[in-house]
TrEMBL record:
This is DUF6545 domain-containing protein. It comes from the Bacteria. Keywords: Membrane, Transmembrane, Transmembrane helix. The keyword Transmembrane helix applies. Coiled coil: none annotated. The keyword Transmembrane helix applies. InterPro entries: DUF6545, MAB_1171c-like. The chain crosses the membrane at residues 6-23, 35-55, 67-89, 101-120, 140-166, 178-204, 210-235. Residues 246-363 form the DUF6545 domain.
Length: 376
């Protein structure tokens, strides 16, 4: 029951991770490393699909008895080979491509070996679980020795490469890599323990059934940690995006008083919509448009604002800004040199928006005063 639950959770998480990887490739383009990561996640997703009872039964009845098991381990081997490419320690794309070519050799040998071993295994035994009795059949034992040895080799290569990356990484990336490192190490150790059991029992040297339980527990824990390491950057990126969107949605609404005031006198600063989709588009796009439009309007209103406008109190800034808007509206424009006002502390959009948000909130808090402007 526990293993089935873990498999179901793994399938769901791998499917989500696959969608995320495809979206990343669509947005950022694909080099060998991101493509290999997507291939690895795709292969793992399909591997867990293949062990679904209904899928397994369909594969065994459509192809041959034991086909589901062959497909499962071949997909795992393919995924591990892709992970070796992903975590290959080297920045040059040509080096990574060369390593991909090298890794193709043991992968093909392992996949051929798995198919041959399954075909020489007696049909009634092909779908049985690993036990001290089933490993007495040469083909059955050979199948799991090949699968275990390749997984140990591939996962070991990944662990060695990740260890080098951990030394260079910091922050959340370091934590993610450490979780991945632990997970892959445990999965590799579980495969090694199972392989040792198969060899010892198959050769009649010793029979230690508890090794299978230890292997299952270690592999399950490793799979969970591996999933956590894979999903952590995805979840963190999504969480940051959600917080970013929520903050921009709030700031977009908070800028409404300042935007309405300035664009009432300068409607020409409002950027034209490229399409109807812009209206219902990303809140970040709408927020950026609003900041740019306000900045453009303030630039044109700046000749009508005092030289020390940035140093005034909130109340005075609100008064002079409303006054400048009224003068601009009545005069049909402004004369004099323009200048930047309410300059942000840094050269980025959020920093540029901070002083705008401050005065916009002050505008919302202060009702319009019933008094004439400087021309009245």
């Amino acid at each position: 029951m526990v293993i089935a639950t873990i498999n179901a959770a793994a399938l769901a998480l791998f499917a989500i991770a696959l969608c995320w990887r495809i979206d990343r490739i669509r947005r950022e383009g694909a080099g060998l490393q991101p493509t290999a990561m997507t291939v690895a996640i795709s292969a793992m997703t399909l591997a867990f699909v293949s062990i679904n009872p209904h899928v397994r039964e369909w594969l065994d009845s459509t192809l041959f008895t034991g086909a589901a098991r062959v497909i499962f381990y071949c997909l795992l081997a393919f995924a591990v080979a892709a992970l070796v490419i992903v975590f290959f320690f080297g920045s040059a794309e040509r080096q990574r491509q060369r390593r991909a070519g090298v890794e193709a050799v043991p992968l093909v040998i392992a996949m051929i070996g798995l198919n041959v071993a399954m075909l020489v295994t007696p049909t009634p035994v092909r779908t049985e679980s690993v036990s001290e009795w089933t490993v007495q059949h040469f083909g059955f034992a050979l199948f799991f020795v090949i699968a275990g040895c390749y997984l140990v080799y591939g996962l070991g290569s990944c662990v060695l490469s990740i260890r080098r990356y951990v030394g260079l990484a910091d922050g959340y990336l370091r934590h993610s890599l450490m979780v991945l490192l632990t997970g892959l190490s445990l999965v590799g150790l579980g495969s090694l323990i199972q392989t040792i059991f198969v060899v010892l029992s198959g050769l009649g040297l010793a029979t230690v059934p508890v090794l299978l339980k230890i292997s299952a527990v270690i592999s399950s824990v490793g799979a969970v940690l591996f999933l956590a390491g894979i999903c952590y950057p995805m979840v963190r990126a999504r969480w940051i995006k959600v917080r970013y969107n929520l903050r921009h949605r709030r700031d977009y609404a908070d800028l409404e008083p300042l935007w309405s005031l300035t664009t009432s006198a300068l409607p020409e600063v409002v950027l034209p919509l490229r399409s109807v989709a812009d209206v219902d588009g990303s809140i970040n796009l709408l927020y950026q448009r609003r900041v740019v439009e306000i900045r453009d309007a303030l630039l044109q209103l700046s000749p009508l604002l005092p030289d020390d406008f940035d140093q005034l109190t909130d109340r005075d800034q609100v008064f002079y800004l409303r006054d400048a808007v009224e003068v601009y509206r009545e005069a049909g424009g402004s004369s004099g040199a323009v200048r930047q006002v309410l300059v942000g502390a840094r050269d980025d959009l959020d920093a540029e928006a901070t002083p705008l948000l401050h005065i916009s909130r002050a505008l919302a808090d202060q009702p319009v005063a019933r008094k004439h402007n400087r021309t009245g």
